[in-house]
Amino acid sequence: MNEPLPASPDITTHKTGILNQGSPDFHGKLVRENNWDLALCQSCHAADYSGGITGASCLTCHTQTNGPEACNTCHGDFQDSTRIAPPEDTHKNITTDSVGVGAHVSHLYENELGHQIECSTCHIVPDKYSDPGHIDTGLPAEITFGNLAVHNIAVNPVYNYPAATCSEVYCHG
To answer: What is the mean pLDDT of residues 123-146?
Structure first.
């Protein structure tokens, strides 16, 4: 009468490829498909991503400050937190002839002006990934010129998306 109960089956929420970047079921792809809603992750893995009810911590791989909410989780090189811009853009492009890659490489890493250009020169940089103006609008990213681009002399800076060029800015004339 006191026979042991059978072992409970392993229950998984995610498909097998959830941790494999090459899989169509990779969690990064799922987050993108759900409009970057990390609250879905937090509902099981805890608000701080430490494991929550799953016991599986996101911080094992997302080791940088802010864990999965760090800039280079989506922008740039996941393995190098100093490269917050491509080798890969938000459309998965990796070549410099793509504007999302080439513009960032030329301004951030191959800059001939003599000093590093900050992201805030051309974009509003959010304090949190979920701040208004960050993930709540579609791509491409908004160009919002900061102090260096305007440098107290440019009064009507413009970015032409189809031509991928700036005009009326301090740095490009």
So the answer is: 83
Spatial CA neighbour of 159 closest among 126, 127, 121: 121
Residue type, 18: I
Element (DSSP H or E) covering residue 32? helix 27-33
In this structure, what token pair is assigned to residue 8? 């409970």
Evaluate the CA torsion angle 94, 97, 98, 104 in order and state its sign: positive
User: Whole-model pTM?
Assistant: 0.72
Q: Is residue 154 classed as helix, strand or coil in its secondary structure? A: coil
Question: What residues pair up with 159 in beta bridges, in sequence order?
Answer: 166
CA distance 59 to 157: 40
DSSP 8-state class, residue 143? P
56 against 139, higher pLDDT: 56
Q: Does residue 116 carry a pLDDT above 80? A: no
8-state DSSP, 52: G
The dihedral sign for the CA sequence 88, 91, 96, 102 = negative
